[in-house]
């Protein structure tokens, strides 16, 4: 049983701990007021955004109803009479993704070495190169595709150039990080055996990072196969152009067939690319 004196000591201890760690005893009035202001601002922003974009339950219901009608019209999927053009468009998209990724991977290798801290010690040069690559990474493939469609005209060339331009900076950054994480002992061993700087890079660092670079390029090829579909919608050729034409004339059964064909193609590429990547990464480990 607590005596009045013991209870007073306990209250004094509690007051001491409350003064030392006020957050452990609940939010202070100032913090509660700050939270209330934050939630109020969030609620105003949310309601204002819904009002600005005219998002209403009636519009959402009408959109879902229209989407349901489209899905019904998609069944059963059909290649239509121009199924040869569909297959050609799919092959064109895969070729666009392969060419764009291949060229970007080749150009990104020297840029990766030039952007690696353990290769180029000139801070100003490395900083400038990385900021340029950051600038390229900030522009999406779709923007590059729109620009190249205006520059070189409609067709797969615009798509290849869009993938090539957008992927150079990303791959160069990933390659530079892989080079910076390479073991130094192999390169130091080449130098100790009488090799020069280039020999240490060729025989000490490149064998370590080459499988990683190839695995990343394969991953980008798989991703770009999906992206090439979207690029075709803006006129960069490929299966996207076939989809856009059939949506315009509302041949939804053929659109469904193209979507299923895209899913199957990407799944096959994903399966093959994944097996190769796992083998390459396993070889590094």
Automatic annotation (TrEMBL):
Membrane topology, from the record: Multi-pass membrane protein
Signal sequence, renumbered to the chain: none
InterPro entries from the UniProt entry: MetI-like (IPR000515), MetI-like_sf (IPR035906), PhnE/PtxC (IPR005769)
Gene3D superfamilies, per the entry: MetI-like (1.10.3720.10)
Residue ranges of domain ABC transmembrane type-1 in the record: 90-273
Ranges that cross the membrane: 36-53, 60-77, 97-120, 141-164, 201-221, 228-244, 256-276
Cellular compartments annotated: Cell membrane
Principal place of residence: membrane
Coiled-coil residue windows: none
Record keywords: Membrane, Transmembrane, Transmembrane helix, Transport
One Pfam family it belongs to: BPD_transp_1
Protein family membership: Belongs to the binding-protein-dependent transport system permease family.
NCBIfam families: PhnE
Name under which the protein is recorded: Phosphonate ABC transporter, permease protein PhnE
Source organism of the structure: Roseomonas fluvialis
């Amino acid at each position: 049983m607590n005596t009045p004196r013991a209870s007073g000591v306990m209250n004094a201890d509690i007051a001491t701990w409350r003064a030392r760690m006020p957050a452990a005893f609940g939010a202070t009035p100032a913090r509660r007021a700050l939270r209330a202001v934050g939630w109020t601002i969030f609620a105003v922003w949310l309601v204002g955004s819904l009002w600005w974009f005219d998002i209403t339950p009636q519009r959402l219901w009408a959109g879902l109803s229209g989407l349901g009608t489209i899905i019904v019209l998609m069944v059963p999927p059909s290649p239509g009479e121009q199924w040869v053009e569909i297959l050609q468009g799919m092959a064109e998209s895969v070729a666009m993704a392969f060419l764009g990724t291949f060229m970007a991977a080749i150009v990104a290798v020297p840029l990766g070495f030039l952007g690696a801290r353990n290769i180029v010690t000139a801070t100003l040069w490395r900083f400038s190169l990385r900021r340029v690559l950051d600038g390229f990474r900030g522009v999406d493939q779709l923007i590059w595709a729109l620009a190249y469609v205006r520059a070189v005209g409609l067709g797969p060339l615009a798509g290849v150039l869009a993938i090539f331009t957008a992927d150079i900076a990303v791959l160069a950054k990933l390659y530079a990080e892989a080079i910076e994480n390479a073991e130094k002992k192999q390169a130091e061993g080449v130098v100790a055996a009488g090799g020069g700087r280039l020999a240490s890079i060729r025989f000490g660092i490149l064998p370590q990072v080459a499988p990683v670079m190839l695995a990343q390029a394969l991953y980008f090829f798989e991703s770009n196969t999906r992206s090439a579909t979207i690029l075709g919608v803006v006129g960069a050729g490929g299966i996207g152009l076939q989809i856009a034409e059939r949506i315009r004339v509302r041949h939804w059964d053929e659109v469904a067939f193209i979507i299923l064909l895209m899913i199957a193609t990407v799944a096959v590429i994903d399966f093959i690319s994944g097996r190769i990547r796992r083998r390459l990464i396993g070889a590094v480990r």
